[in-house]
Structures are given as structure tokens and as C-alpha cells.
Design a protein that fits this description.
The structure holds two protein chains of two kinds. Chain A contains no helices and eleven strands. Chain A is an all-beta fold. In chain A, a hairpin with a 5-residue loop joins strand 5 and strand 6. The N and C termini of chain A lie far apart (40 Å). In chain A, the strands form two sheets. In chain A, strands 2, 4, 5, 6, 9, 10 and 11 form a seven-stranded mixed β-sheet that branches. A four-stranded antiparallel β-sheet of chain A has the order 1-3-8-7, with no helix packed on it. By secondary structure, chain B is mainly beta. Helix content of chain B is 0%, strand content 50%. Chain B contains no helices and eleven strands. In chain B, the strands form two sheets. In chain B, strands 2, 4, 5, 6, 9, 10 and 11 form a seven-stranded mixed β-sheet that branches. A four-stranded antiparallel β-sheet of chain B has the order 1-3-8-7, with no helix packed on it. The interface between A and B is medium-sized, with 22 and 25 residues.
Chain lengths: 119, 107
Amino acid sequence: QVQLVQSGAEVKKPGASVKVSCKASGYTFTSYGISWVRQAPGQGLEWMGWISAYNGNTNYAQKLQGRVTMTTDTSTSTAYMELRSLRSDDTAVYYCARGLSVTTPIDYWGQGTLVTVSS
Amino acid sequence: DIQMTQSPSSLSASVGDRVTITCQASQDISNYLNWYQQKPGKAPKLLIYDASNLETGVPSRFSGSGSGTDFTFTISSLQPEDIATYYCQQYDNLQLTFGGGTKVEIK
């Protein structure tokens, strides 16, 4: 069965960076892409961007351009999301999720990783 | 970015009631709309894709309709396990956006 298993919770100081991992199993990793979606405490869902696991092409949310980098390691079927220059309003649960392309439904989700930004 | 306006933001209904949620796009998105269910502390789950197609394994009491800018999500007979927050999401362009969510509670 399709599974996306994310790395554990992180606590970071403002201005630092965080890198969250997402290990995929149960499907051919390079046949799909990975979207990243975050959810601040008590708030709605915010799409952050998408990366093709086939060729590494990315599409980032305009709001996060310049602060976010998404990568993949096909040898381990793992996707990564790095967010830099962290602010308190980056505190959120970060989800990875599978999508065939950026314009197709997101059909499987990881369990989420809580990132807390606090001085 | 395409804005998605979802209403109501919350609702309370009795078991067996018909529940309807609407989502309006700020511009024509054809049928490029999905609906997700999120239970507390859990990741979202895809229920409806391409506005009206039921994802495999999802109960038939869930349905979706609409095209262009106006969309509707319906639970034909509310069940206790349907307590969750529901989100619409557009994928018409390369900047995906979600609606603000509708929290569904049991009266």
C-alpha cells in the first residue's frame, strides 16, 4: 500500500532553517510528484509547492519563492522540503502528499511533521 | 492567485440530515476542483476529484457537482463518522489554492 512517512517534529529559532523528509513506499516513486502542504495551528491548508520525482522540476507557491527548496533522492524514494529564514508564522504541521502532477488530485498524504518556530 | 470562497465556515446538523457546502472560485476553473475531508489530528483525505468523481472507497453518500466558478459538496445522510472539516481545492493553474474549510458538527 502507498505510504508516505515523514520525519519527526522540529523546534527552530527564528531565522533558522528546517528540512523535513518524506519517505515513500508502495508505488513507483519516479512516476509521481510530491506536493507539500502546511497547516498553521487551528487554521486551514496552504499549498507550498510541488516537485516531480521523475525529473526534479519544481513549482513553488509564489508566497514562498526564495525561501523554500524541494528536492528528491530517487535512490531512497525520499522527498525533502527545506524552508529558510523561519518566522513565528511558519509554525505549522507540514504534510507531504502524492500527486501525479501539479494539476492532478493529491491522493495520498504523509502523517505530518510539526515545526515550531520559537525563540 | 485564484481565491476559493467556501461557505459556511461551520455547520451543525443532525444524524441523517442532508448537508451542503459551497465553494466559489474567483475565476473560471472548469471542473478542476477537489474536496477533502480532514478529521482532527489527521491528514486530509481525498473524497471527490474533478468536481464530481468519487474517489475509490469513499461512501456514496458523498457527492460533488458544479463547474466554472460555483461548486457544491453534499453529504446525503450525515453520519457520526462524518464529523470533520471539509476543504475544496482548485488545481486549474500552477498555483493550487484551498478554500477556508467547513467544520461539520453533530447537533
